[in-house]
Amino acid sequence: MRLYDYDIPEDACDRIGASLGHLGSKWALPIIMRLSDGPVRFNELRRQIPGISQKVLTATLRSLQRNGYIRRREVANVPPQVDYELTPQCRVLLLPMRDLVRAAVDQQPAVLAAQRAFDASNNGKDDGQSRR
Predict the structure, then answer these.
(1) Of 86, 94, 77, nearest in space to 39 by CA
(2) Best CATH choice for the domain 2-89 from the list 2.60.40.10, 1.10.10.10, 1.10.260.40, 3.40.1190.20
(3) Cβ-proximal residues to 84 (8 Å cutoff; 6+ apart), any chain
(4) How far apart are CA 54 and CA 37, in angstroms?
(5) Cβ contact 40:34 at 8 Å
(6) Is residue 19 predicted with pLDDT exceeding 90?
(7) CA nearest to 66, candidates 51, 84, 93
(8) Amino acid 76: pLDDT
(9) Are 32 and 90 in contact (CB under 8 A)?
(10) Whole-number CA gyration radius for the chain
């Protein structure tokens, strides 16, 4: 299959699902966007991302680290210091991520309006798919 000038491999759906699954959590993109300016310490990340709990930040950082998007770096200071930074693998994705974030934010009012219109046209009927 081809998309524009790109040959899409047969396992493209699996590859896309795997990548987006790791990046699709509520907090992954805000963390990545914050790290795009350079390494950041854990508590600084927590302060700069409103609403994220310590537990969720830890879990999301570990997931991003496990999948090769960020690197945890221990700095030999007194007291010891740990910071997080993007890997080259993740930096390649920054431009498309920025565009995706902008589009998602810009389209949210239209999405909400479409949902309201759809729900109103169904008069409360639940076809099993309207509220996934």
Answers:
(1) 86
(2) 1.10.10.10
(3) 35, 39, 40, 41, 42, 45, 61, 65, 70, 71, 72, 73
(4) 21
(5) yes
(6) no
(7) 84
(8) 85
(9) yes
(10) 19
Q: Are the C-beta atoms of residues 25 and 61 closer than 8 Å to each other?
A: no
Which structure tokens are listed for 131? 């509220």
Q: Is the pTM of this model over 0.85?
A: no
Matching residue, tokens 């693998």: 89
Q: At residue 113, does pLDDT exceed 90?
A: yes
Tokens of 14: 């699996």
- Side chain identity at 125, as an amino acid letter? K
Task: Give the burial string for 21-51 (b: 16+ CB within 10 Å, else e).
Answer: eebeeebbbbbbebbeeeebebeebbeebee
Tokens of 44: 């600084």
SS3 70: strand
